[in-house]
């Protein structure tokens, strides 16, 4: 039986009435996305039509999910909200703090010892406030959610950008910052700008080497890393119905890489099969009673251009495998052209390591198809040229693939099976030799491949592909190898060709697991004590940020003018810094250390205007804070792309940065900045970015009449005594202006208690 079945029953019970009310208000047939969103309005039955891309709307999500790195800050905030128990079903998943180094058992034992304080904190907070707790080794949050909590037609939020994975089971699942999660757990409505809609029509059927991963790799090439910002991608068509549920999850998962608010699919037989295979026949039975509400109205898919803001069509029968990268997940190259493109760009051709797994591609189907290639190594008398690793997504998958012999198959080709955790995907990989920073190539089935993300080496060229292609290229050890057409020379000197991958959508003998790793919370947690030692280097109780002083901001020193791509990895690195995710002051020592300074083309080297010397970004900002001087960060396009980590907003706030002024924001990061009381602005004229000089002191004028839709003025006080005025836009509504004035959304919540 499923978790929280009564909640699912209640969601379905009200869905029909709410969908019908929305259809009348909107005055036309509805997409699936609209049905789910309108049926989760905090106002109940809809009374007005909301404008896509403009209207801010309050929703009541069904559930919240948090991974251990972001849960620390989310729960530290929740502890100050004065609540006895979470208002909606919520879970914590310990998946980010386990470093891949030796073997699964060894790495897990090390993580349990090194992170004991944090795990005890998360466990006790979960126990106290009624939160389900998934222990270290249980699996990656998104795979565990898909296996246990996701349900068609539901609305959930999670403190990780790849929460969107649950769209594979027909949800609207959205990545948020911890402050948003805290609001929902405290029983508050959750605000979202009504998204625009992209419809992706899938025709035909996958075959041969093509996989679901190739669908999203192609879409990423079409939309780019910001083409989905403030939009939901809804997939439909006969091709969509032909995909497995976990294949759909892979596609939705990587929708985060195009900036999409989320992605989803209509309920179909593949979802029903997956629900029943994962012991949720009760959910499948319930979903079958409301099928009509769990997909778009027929008129929508018959004439998609009339209902979606943008339509893309992909024929799966003609789709070939893609390899995306390096350094960005939207640089899409079909496998037939990869060798040519790689040679032309001087990419290292030797594939040193192939890595499969992660939250994106760790399903039973993924593993079984990759294993069918691994089996051919011995059968065809080949040797694997590159190193090879597997990161299972959950203990359910790991136990089942071990039982069915796939782990042994991988071991025979020298593969290493890491713990059921994020590991190399998020930079938790102790890769031998990475410190030498040698130029090399790796290929993986993860979702992101930003510079230095996986192993800390900025000279590692990381490419993203399906598990099948990763396995084939690791066997060949050659980035230019095309398994669809090329041969390999075996030990007998004979040219052999790899057979097409074969696999199983679901295990023929069913899933098995001895201990899934779940800890249920106490029925009454009032007696549970949560202890945070004042001397801890890992955890720190939060202090309120100061409220706005009621005046315009003047005398702001330029901290950094970031050049080019500045993701949340650049703003607040992961990897070894994950250990400080519960200690705001300590983790603030990584503030913007990965960003490139426009003035000198260097990372972590900015001018201290108080001394004239260059120093690390955190050191300069701490000097400004000590002197009582405010500062401003200037950035380029899609600033804050990537992870949902709110630390990238809390760190500058904690250290005294007052304003972030950029050409454009990634959605989650902009919201996180607003929630923490920061001023998030965009250049009215993006070309004004070029006017910002290294020694500038800036003023923000117009805050005393701060209002929605009204531009602010930025005064640039140059070192030569001259001044320039430019205009800045913002997207604050009245409620968000309240967050700014109070000093943070949490401050406002406390005031309203």
From TrEMBL:
It holds the Pfam family Aconitase_C. Residues 34-477 form the Aconitase/3-isopropylmalate dehydratase large subunit alpha/beta/alpha domain. One of its GO terms (biological process) is tricarboxylic acid cycle. Keywords: Iron, Iron-sulfur, Lyase, Metal-binding, Transit peptide, Tricarboxylic acid cycle. Its cofactor is [4Fe-4S] cluster. GO terms for molecular function: 4 iron, 4 sulfur cluster binding; aconitate hydratase activity; metal ion binding. Its EC number is 4.2.1.3. InterPro entries: Acnase/IPM_dHydase_lsu_aba_1/3 (IPR015931), Acoase/IPM_deHydtase_lsu_aba (IPR001030), Aconitase/3IPM_dehydase_swvl (IPR015928), Aconitase/IPM_isomerase (IPR050926), Aconitase_4Fe-4S_BS (IPR018136), Aconitase_4Fe-4S_dom (IPR036008), Aconitase_dom2 (IPR015932), Aconitase_mito-like (IPR006248). NCBIfam families: aconitase_mito, PRK07229.1. Belongs to the aconitase/IPM isomerase family. This is Aconitate hydratase A.
